[in-house]
Amino acid sequence: MKILDWVSVRKLESRWGLFPSGILNVAVMLTVFMILWRVFMDPRGTMRMYTPMYGYAYVQWFLVSVLIAWLVMRLWPLQNSTMVARLHPALKGGIWFCLCALFMLFMVNVVLKMMIGGMSIPYFSEATLLSLKENAFNAREYSHQAITMVGGMTALIIPIWVLHLKNWPAREIQRGSGYVTSLMLIFFLATVGFLLLYHPHLGILFYPWQVYAASIPWWEGLANTLSSNFCLGLMMSWTAALWIIQVTYEGYPFKLIDNHPLRPLAGILGTLLFGLILFSGFHFLQEIAWGAPVRGAKLVAAVDWRYLHSGETSLFMLLISLIWGFYFKNWPRQYSVEVNFLIRTVIVGIGTFLFYNFYYKFNAGILGQQPGYSNPLQFPLAATSLIVALLLAHSWFFDMWPGEKVTNLQEFVEEPEVTSPAGEPATR
Amino acid sequence: MTTNITRGNFLKGMAMGTVAGFFASQGISSTVFRSYLVPEKKRKSIDIGELKGITIKTISETSWFDNYVQQNDFKKAGGSLVSQYDVAFTTKDVAAGYLGNNAGGYSSLIEFEFMDGSKKKLLLDTGWNVDWMTRRYQEEGIDKMLRNNEIDVLFISHDHYDHYWGIEAAFKFKPDITMMIPNSFMEDSYKLMSGGNFPKPPIKNSIPFKGNLIKHDLKKIYPLYPGVAAVTFACPCGRGVWGEQVLVCNVAGKGVATITGCCHMGLITLLEYIKNNMKGGDKVYGVYGGLHISPYDDWNPQNDDLVRTIRNYKVERLGCNHCTGYITVEKMITAGVPVVKGTARNKTKRDIYLGNGDTMIL
């Protein structure tokens, strides 16, 4: 028996009440995060992959792999009930965790480094850059920066495609060919986005500027910087907006026009607008805190870093939104929609403020980084993205075990095929 | 809940959303709110006095001799955030190195001439490789100056390996010199000062410090002599190092001059700070030292932002070296920045900036 939309049809129930179970699950997820960080990323740890771009690239693609596994592929090709419903959540989750890690390795090492970097665009491959006499560390950082940026773009296109274009054509063709076609369309759009928004940055990363291979950044006049951190920050804010609207605000207001032919346009432009609000709002808060940025300056005064930090802060907000939505079931749900949204907005706002201050007070000790808000050698999103990936995997692959349990397992024993009731892709 | 709405209502909703979004995003940062929430910077005008002139001798700006080897060491160690005391640097068989050792160091001798004609000497940083620094100190007569108490102060800009680990080379000639450091040294850096041995990098100091240690708190201005002040910045420097101090001078009739070890706070940030806080800070006469832009001949579009902006500050003489990087200097020269040329000797590879043994007079 195939279960095409497991996350939509399963019914989860807290084992020990909403908040105790939620807190336990957050603690479990963060424990896994700390173990992974210490082993793979921490500059004081075992593998020390947080150079920073080397490890960040893998984290970014692990997040993309998790997004693809559920949102795009709907757990295909392992959709049978034995695999999806009957296995213990820890075992099932472990299998999917490993599959995502394998897909991450395939995308980073085979597709991006070997194929693209080896045969097409040198800056994707550390080995190719080394062969071109780039120094050892730059070769590693530059190539993984490009790989991270493609991953970031893909992580933006996936929710746009799934939430606002209904994962076309996979929604109509619920089998391998449909899923793979959706995935290829997402990759195509991510590639176009990367070429428009990041490729010019990488073109002038080398000396002399590679003007025959990449345009001089078109955003310079608009953003007062040549750095693509302008585009990157905006894309981060848009990504945050997409998810915050979907999770904290339950898809409103776009949910109201679910069947309108122009819904994709409204959804895409509407979330972009919300992203712009986050982007410029957080940018303005930085001006209040640190004064106006100065072109050519470094650290907190740098024009490009301010844009990047707007995006980073937006994604801090996203993290809190996801934690509240996934682990605490978006409490409250008992009031009117407006009141629920208002209370959640306050919770997410305060949570973001607290997390922001906690992060910048303790990140050096906990993550092995340097203190301070701005440091060109480190990116808070490496850790944040890993937490988001684990949180999503916890929900989609591990059925929120151990804090929650699936209460309707019996429904999936005999019935031939179960799909999502409304066709809306479930995110929780 | 899902529903179908009319085309008119749909368009109305989109229009309202767009207008509301515009005001929410741009309205808050409009002129009215901006002037209320982001007040104009209050400029200070701290007077540090003035001096007649400065002579700067570059003892060593070659912190390492082979970029590739140096970067490979960091790659093997785990990147930019790994503590400098936890990196195994290559000290043997480097063809371009000094006696096979890739370590060099950064150190400069600064001589201030005051309005009454008197002079003071200050040694900025002590480099890294003790053998290399000892040789350079002997070649430039620093050893004798130290022995003869001609050097007033040992001024450590920050405790990076290439600026500080060569302290034994200075202590062997004068272990009781007065030393000024930013009050943000790593714990291991204090151990090195008092005779520590770190086998991994490897680095050791067999001559414990016996002089007067003056610690400068970060984010402050410390007047040192008439027309000379130490300014401390809280800034990340990488490899576990935090905070850097620079020298800011006011040359009579000419303008301010900055002397930096690495300038981790950023050149524009430094010049903006001087402009906003110090008397006469609008007129930048000279800049000297490492500017930390492309130390490994790495590049970033942000660096192009700096190259395009630096002309606006109308620096009259820019004497840079070390972590400024050759790429930066080439781009600055192309952009018309008045970079002071050197002579490319004593293992400095190119003459486009001030190298080992070169002098700049301000």
Task: Give the secondary structure arrangement, pairings included.
The complex is a heterodimer of chains A (428) and B (362).
Chain A: E1 2-3, H1 6-9, E2 12-14, H2 18-41, H3 53-72, H4 81-86, H5 89-119, H6 126-131, H7 136-164, H8 176-197, H9 199-203, H10 220-223, H11 229-247, H12 263-290, H13 303-327, H14 337-367, H15 380-396, E3 404-406, H16 411-414, E4 417-418
Parallel strand pairs in A: 1-4
Antiparallel strand pairs in A: 2-3
Helix pairs in contact in A: 2-15, 3-5, 3-7, 3-15, 7-8, 7-11, 11-12, 11-13, 12-13, 13-14, 13-15
Chain B: H1 7-27, H2 31-37, E1 53-60, H3 67-77, E2 107-113, E3 119-124, H4 130-139, H5 142-147, E4 151-155, H6 161-164, H7 167-171, E5 179-182, H8 187-193, E6 197-198, E7 203-204, E8 213-216, E9 221-225, E10 228-238, E11 241-251, E12 255-260, H9 267-277, E13 284-290, H10 301-310, E14 317-321, H11 326-334, E15 359-361
Parallel strand pairs in B: 3-4, 4-5, 5-8, 12-13, 13-14
Antiparallel strand pairs in B: 1-2, 1-15, 2-3, 6-7, 9-10, 10-11, 11-12
Which keywords apply here?
heterodimer; A: 428 residues; mainly alpha; two-stranded parallel sheet; two-stranded antiparallel ribbon; 16 helices; 2% strand; globular; B: 362 residues; alpha/beta; seven-stranded mixed sheet; six-stranded mixed sheet; 11 helices
